[in-house]
Amino acid sequence: MNRDYAKYALRRVLQAIVVVLLAYVFTFVVISVLPGDPVTNTLRNPQNGFTEEEITRIVSYYGLDRPVHEQLWDSLSRLVVGDLGVSLRSGLPVTRLIGEVVGSTLVLALSALAVALVLAFAIGFGTRYLPKRGGQGLLRAFPALFLSVPNFVVGLVLISVFAFQLGLFRVIDSEGGAATSFAAIALGIPVSAQVAEVLIANLDHEAGQEYAAVARSRGLGRTRLFLRHLLKPSSLPVVTVIALTVGELLGGAVITEQIFGRTGVGSLVERSVTTQDLPVLQAVVTLAAVTFVVVNLVADLLYPLLDPRVRLAGGRSRGKAEVAAP
Amino acid sequence: MTVAAVPSALPAVRRGQAAKVPPTVAVSFAVLAVVLSWSVVPGLFTAQDPVNGVPADKFLRPSTAHLFGTDHLGRDLFTRVVHGTASSVTSALIAVGIGVVVGGLIGLVAGFAGGWVDSVLARLVDVLLAIPSFLLAVVVVSSLGFQTVNAAIATGVSAVGVFARVMRSEVLKTRQAVFVEASYLQGGSRWHILVRHVLPNASRSVLMLAVLQFGLSILVIAGLAFLGYGDPPPASDWGLLIATGKDYPLAAWLVYAPAFVTIATVLSVNRISRWLRKTD
């Protein structure tokens, strides 16, 4: 088992590294091969007042006049040593630009995840606790509803009700605790739907198992049955789902940060898109891919340790055969 | 005799099928029918001008004359929502089309060819899945230029990974089936097996995913339009209407009406996709 696990872990780590490098190349290709040349378009804008000679000098300074594959090789070899290049707009190193805002997004994403988990488990518990005809159906419809509401609408409604009408938080103080919690709710609601769907399906499955019937026949109440028996086996697969929602949290942050006026990675993306700041976009996409890959790697590596029922492809059955032989 | 028998048999079949459709699914189909007809013949549902308003009638509350009220230029919001439907819905269809065709092909080739081709394509799909889909759509649309068509293409690109993964797993599942082995033994060519056995078996899963992605694409495209990455005003994509509406907090209907239409549409699509999955 241990040797199999080590092999499995090594393979997954190598795959993760390859995926991250490819994500960087992919973004580079999308940005530089697709039609449209935002860099020279910006430079040639008459408002910027560059002469033709200056443009040539700037373009060759950034190495943009060389063949695409040379540029790619260059930027890849810089990536390996942790250099993500320089922002075309501000001239500052991209790592510094991202470093300044990454904390705010991390706080937002983690609080949104917390909101999503609390909501999902509340819904999950509700579907086990409420009687079939007393609101359970309504509760079961919640994830589908959450998945159908654009997250910017949730944000706008929260702001209009809780900031403008009830005065619970001020829009100006966008990084404050109250504003952050409401931003987290807006970002967390669609995520909670994905977690809740899997959780409800698992709870239904576990509740139909014989051990649950035995526990019920021994007179265990609904709450204790949920907490002591159903919760653990049902929430283990949720680990994988949570890892998959990382993308949702990072992508959704672009809109949520814009609505709530926060300065984070999302608003940096928004600004870089309007100013066509390609190195920043490339770095953010790579960072997002790294986050996604690392979180999913950790989840996949943890999972066989958390849930002993999971077998690694082929590994466990061979172990059993060896035990059975003598 | 036979002529008389045919009409009497038809309603029986129809009634039998109708009984199996839950009421919420029937409502969902009705909502989609309305939305689709809005996008095909908007003029049938409203006689007012979506672009030029009556300035004296600005910021009117929803009423019988103006179902969704009027905006800051005195334009009827219902008319603008109806005329914005075509672009909001067709761009979602374009996105799903790109996902199905490109993703489906990648999955098909990967699953069918196996070996190193499969490994290479699997890494490509991993990359597509590792980049948050909304972020990917934003980057692609920024590279192509801010237009609704490009937003649709970007959304499609961000959906390719999911379609490829589902198609590949379906192909692998079918390829191992006994009837495919039998077909090989009877001398069936790879092409024959692909067209006759693999594609029909995979199409159901891909169709269900396509319906789900259609709803998701409406949301993503609305998000891109909300950020201003689609066609500029006077276009009236739902996301753009909501984005403009949010600047007038005192006229709350400017946000709520287009938001309601968006939510109703996506909710209906999701309900239908869930129903399809259940009847599988």
From TrEMBL, chain A:
Cellular component, GO annotation: plasma membrane
Subcellular location: Cell membrane
Pfam family, one: BPD_transp_1
Membrane topology listed for this record: Multi-pass membrane protein
Keywords: Cell membrane, Membrane, Transmembrane, Transmembrane helix, Transport
Any single GO BP term: transmembrane transport
PROSITE patterns: ABC_TM1 (PS50928)
Keyword Transmembrane helix carried by entry: yes
Domain ABC transmembrane type-1: 102-303
TM regions (residue ranges): 12-34, 106-130, 142-166, 178-200, 236-260, 280-303
Sequence similarity: Belongs to the binding-protein-dependent transport system permease family.
Protein name, as recorded: Peptide/nickel transport system permease protein
Organism: Umezawaea tangerina
Automatic annotation (TrEMBL), chain B:
Top-level taxon in the UniProt lineage: Bacteria
Predominant localisation class: membrane
Localization terms from the record: Cell membrane
Organism: Umezawaea tangerina
GO cellular component labels: plasma membrane
Tagged with keyword Transmembrane helix: yes
Example of a GO biological process term: transmembrane transport
Name used for this protein in its record: Peptide/nickel transport system permease protein
Membrane spanning residue stretches: 24-45, 92-117, 124-143, 149-167, 206-230, 250-269
Membrane topology recorded in Swiss-Prot or TrEMBL: Multi-pass membrane protein
Family recorded in the similarity comment: Belongs to the binding-protein-dependent transport system permease family.
Keywords from the UniProt entry: Cell membrane, Membrane, Transmembrane, Transmembrane helix, Transport
InterPro entries (alphabetical): BP-dependent_transpt_permease (IPR050366), MetI-like (IPR000515), MetI-like_sf (IPR035906)
Span of domain ABC transmembrane type-1: 85-273
Keyword Transmembrane: yes
